[in-house]
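Justification of resources, computational component.

The compute hours requested in this renewal are based largely on the per-chain cost of generating structure records like the one below. Each record pairs the submitted sequence with a full structure-token output. That output is archived, and it is also reused by downstream analysis tasks.
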Amino acid sequence: MKNKTLARILPPLAVVGALAAIPTTTATVAAQDVDTYRELENFLAVFQRVRESYVEEVDDHTLIKGAIDGMLAALDPHSSYVEASDFANMRLSTDGNYGGLGLTVSQQDGAVVVVTPTEDTPADRAGLKAGDFITHLDGDLLFGLTLDEAVEQMRGAPGSKVTLTVVRPGADAPFDVEITREIIELKPVKWEIVDDIGVININAFSAATGDGVEDAIRSIERSLGRKPAGYVIDLRSNPGGLLDQAIEVSDAFLERGEIVSERGRDKRDIERFYATRGDLTEGRPLIVLIDAGSASASEIVAGALQDHRRAVVMGERSFGKGSVQTVIQTGPESALRLTTARYYTPSGKSVQAGGIEPDIIVPQLTDPDYFSRPRLREADLRRHLVAQKGVEDEVLEDDGDKRDPRYSAKAEELEEAGIEDYQLHYAVKTLNRVASLTRTTKVAGRK
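The structure output for this chain reads:
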């Protein structure tokens, strides 16, 4: 994520004066200036009438903040203006620790909807799932609050309890879940070894993620005393984070080539990011696991490794957030988060709204309501950007609506067989088959 600081911002009257002073060189530019001046004049007239005639006295800051919020809400779901506690919350999301529930949420038609619960947090342990709607907090209706206001109410002192009223699509009725808030210490990277396969679970792209992945690779090798047969990069339910960390993680598995490009409004405004030499796994087979909760930085990593044929991508179609937000600090405790570019995978594909399609679709059969639960993706958000200006969204089926006859096992059967995570189980089995075939080929070659 880029961070820029503006020295100052002009108040509305100064903006009008500045626009009027700009010399016009063509009739078109002059007409545009006149139209802009009329619109700003209309805004100031409404502003003045509200502050003079509204039924209750309202301060200017509230009116101007509301106007800014409305202006940005007309653009896309990810542009916003934050102040004070909201600014602190935005910084916490990338710095790593906060008191709360462990949820990534969005808004759909004014309602708060769960994008994904963070692994091993109170929300995850309480059984909240992607697609759940949270309607009340301690009996108070959340509908009508801004997303930042709803998030602020969910956070609180560690040890305090909160009761969420949840509407789950497919469930018979709303139900309450009591959750105790905790300090959410985001551990961006965890690792384990499963049947000679190194599993690297990346939960978020915060400031330490790149280093965490390198440490995980080294720790797996030290634990085994050698390199594993392959690696699973688990990006499921990872909502994204910092762009530079997505680049570092991709670079850890690539020898060369483009990782991602950013393209702004001007066609000439393209910034490309490349891998440096040195695949830390020395070419070991990779599988990347994604799902509908894999967004943003997760999609950069999955797209880069897929396009370079460095990894097989498994799971289900990802979230589809292919836009870049620049954070412009406008004051000591305020910032503008503005969508300034789309990002593209090395093959030139934008994942905006469409997401990353897995090479092999593998449903999460150990989730009993996997096929009935709807997924929330970028394309479901109001005013979402399309993949490219002037190009309409492609209508994509939800993976959850498709039941491949090859995947017929029931959740209860898998549980009895000791399989807790079918997608991970499938990925590990696949890598071990690849390793077995490789060993067989080498032996045959020596003969």
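The mean pLDDT is 86. The chain is about 30% helix and 25% strand.
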